[in-house]
Amino acid sequence: MPNSDSHPKGDGVAGRSSILRIEASEQELLRLLILRKKMIVVGYNSFHQQLQCISTTASQIGRNVKCKSVMRPQIQITPSSSSSLGSRVFVLSDLHTDYADNMNWVKSLSALTYKKDVLLVAGDVAETYTNFLLTMTLLSQRFQHVFYVPGNHDLWCRRENNHYLDSVEKLSSLLDACRGLGVKTSPTILNGLGIIPLFSWYHESFDREEEITGIRIPSLQMACKDFHACKWPGELSSRDISLALYFDAMNEENRKLIKDMQRKCNHIITFSHFVPRHELCPEKRMLFYPNLPKIIGSDILEARIRSIHGVLGSPSIVHVFGHTHFCWDAMLDGIRYVQAPLAYPRERRRRMNGGEDWLPFCIYSDGKFVEKMSPCYWSDYYSVNPRTPHITQLAPWVAKYYARQ
After folding, report:
1. InterPro entries attached here (predicted)?
2. Which strands sit side by side in the sheet containing 88-92, from one edge to the other?
3. pTM for this structure?
């Protein structure tokens, strides 16, 4: 999806909608938990064996990665129980380090500046396991603590030479790699700050705004590679709510940890890859692909966030997300929502605030949340314009694009 930060302003807007609360039955959550636990991880016996094997397979399943960069004599593993907190917490999403420019950007991050800091990685690190492992290794060398949640690109299997039975197995492999590197994927308290990674997936019914008609819009299967690049066992599908429930069931396993965190922490940051509210995406008429809202978000995710932060929210909480590649910083119903994507190289070149100089974005410093990220074209726009999804006349740049088709 092309980033629209550089487009002229349209007639759009942002409003607030009531929260759709979807509560899966305990039986359904239990069924999904059992299903997830039954998934068999096939592959190497340990993370370190995987690391050694990469040198012989990088040429086949990696792109723009040198084997010697992946092979390290020994990885220093940060204990997951560490309670120390650096002075700052940074956020970043959509690294897409299969692109050489993006991998070079990660490599260019200072090896000294962030040594006492925390980084939250909100998904879409890389398409291949090789690039994922190299990227997370580089980040774990630069930051004291690194947290991660998976994105859709991370679970693509199309360039893995049939190494994984399906995307569930690949997810298990990525989480195993994170454990080996000391990258955290579960709720953790660091000196009074609670950090909660939230697993999620999108569902089409998330989109409830009026459809755009009168133009030929490619189908979801044509526009979204997830339908071909991800592989799911028979019980799970991107065309219904099953994947959204499946991933949310992983959060259910941490309910006791989160309850404890709510009692002990002065500030809490939750983060996900996918979008929890449709107000966090431009209206359809502003988008080159108007059906984008069908493949970006989850009402179940928003319900999970509200179960943690409360219906009214609080100034002491923030939710970080990714996926759409739009820089965003907005307050909705008492919760601050932030997206700070590296995105694709071509998108960074188009948007007003680039990304090379201000990313990763510092969200927390010296015991408090920092000021609003700026400029953020779309969230800035919607802060002064109401959201009017009932208006379906295409924005000029979108109309021009479809006129050429």
Report:
1. Calcineurin-like_PHP (IPR004843), Metallo-depent_PP-like (IPR029052), Pantetheine_PDE (IPR052963)
2. 145-148, 118-121, 88-92, 361-365, 368-369
3. 0.81
